[in-house]
User: What shape does this take?
Amino acid sequence: MNINFEKASFKDFENIEGMDAYQRAGYFSEYLEYLRSRGHLNYRMESQSGCGPEVEMDIAGYGGKKSYVSLVSNDYLGFTQHEAVKKAAIEGIRRFGTGAGASPAIGGHFSFHEKLEQKISGFFGREAAITYTTGYTANSASLLCLLRKEDMAILDMAVHASVYEGCMNTNVKMFLHNNMDALERALRESQATHRTRIVVVDGVYSQDGDLAPLTKILELTRHFGAYLMVDDAHGVGVIGRTGRGLIQEHNLLKEVDIITGTFSKTFGHVGGYVVASPDLIQFLKYQSRQHLFSVTASPASMSILKAIDLIDEEPEWQDMLWENIIYFKNGLKELGLDIGTTASGIVPVKIRDIPKTLEVGRLLLKAGVYANPIMYPAVSKKDSRIRMSLMATHTRPHLDRVLNAFADISAKLKIGSRYE
Ligand code: PMP
Assistant: This one.
C-alpha cells in the first residue's frame, strides 16, 4: 500500500491493511520525516517555559532560543501563572506530599478531593460531583459506565473525541452539527427502541469555538424523554455572567442532567468532573472503572480550589479575555480572513487546504507566532485551519504581532476574501 504523503493525514496510518503494528510504525516514521524535512511537523514542540501569552522555544533552524507569542493554551484566564493558584498547589504538596498513592475506594480519597467534589458541584449550584484525573476520562468513563447495549448515545457529530470513546459499550446515533431537525429525528426514531438515551453536546465546540443552541436542545431532549449531557470544557470561565459557562448563559444550570468539564483549561491544572444527581454520581463513584481502579489526583490539585474561588473573587480576568477576543476577531475579519462562527475564546482561521495550512503554521512560527494547524481527523479534510486560543493575559502588542503576521502571510499565500 502506498500513501500519497502530500495529501495524507495521521488518520491514514491508524490501520493499514497487511501491515502489522511495527511495519505501520515504520511507515509512519517515514511520513513524519517527510513533514519534518519541509518544516511542517509543528506538533509536540518543546516549550521551555510554562503556559502563558508568550513561550520560549528553541526550534532547529529558527535562530536559537526565542520568545514566541503563544496561542496554543486553553489557560483562558491565565490562572496557571496566578500567584495565589501556585501558592495553593505548593501548600497542597507541603501538607499531603506529592502523590495520593491509591485509588479513591482504597485509601486515595483525601480531604481536598472531597472538598473539590463539593466545590465544583456548588460552583454550578448543584448537589453532587465526581472527579476524574483528566477531562477526557470524565467524559469517556462516565458514558462507558452509564450506557450499555440496550441504550443509545445521540451525539452532535462535533463532540470531543473523549465522548466517542465513551460510547464503545453502546449504540451511537450522530446528528449533523447543531442541526435541530436532525436531533429531533434521532430522538423520535430511537424513542421506542432504546432504553436510556443520552443526548451529548459540547457547550463551546473545541475546533470552531461556536456554541450549542442549548435551550432548544434541552426542549427536544425533554419532549422525547431522553437525558442531556453537556461538556462545557471551553465555556467555563469564559461565558456566562459569573463564568459558569454556556449553561449559565441559557439559565439551565439546574436543568441539564449531566454537566461535564475539565480542570485543565480555565482552572489551570489537570483533571475533570461530572456533575449530576446524587444517585447518579454515587453510582459512578462505585461503578466507573476508570475512577475506581485508578489513583486520585495529586495534592498539587489543591490549586483548583483556589482557581474556582478566583472566578468570583477576580471577575476582571473574564472581562480582559473578552476585550482581547473582540479586538482579535475584528482584526482578523478586517484582513478578510474566515474565522467561521466562533463566539468564544477559540478563534480559528480557516484555510481549507492541508498543505497550505501546514505552510501557514510554518510561516507564523518564522514570524514569532506559535499557533496550531488543525487538520483531519480533528476536522474534515476540507476544513483545515489554524486554531488559536486567547488568554486574558495577552496584551495588545502580542495580538498586533499576530495580526501583522497574518497580514503578511495572507498576502503571500493569497488567503482570505481579499484574494478570492
Ligand atoms: N472536552 C473538550 C470539549 C475538550 O476540548 C477537551 C480537551 N481538549 C476535553 C474534553 C478533554 O479535557 P482534558 O484535556 O482536560 O483531558
Q: What stands out?
A: DSSP finds 14 helices and 13 strands in the chain. The first helix runs from residue 21 to 37. The mean pLDDT is 96. The chain has two domains: 36-70+316-419, 80-313.
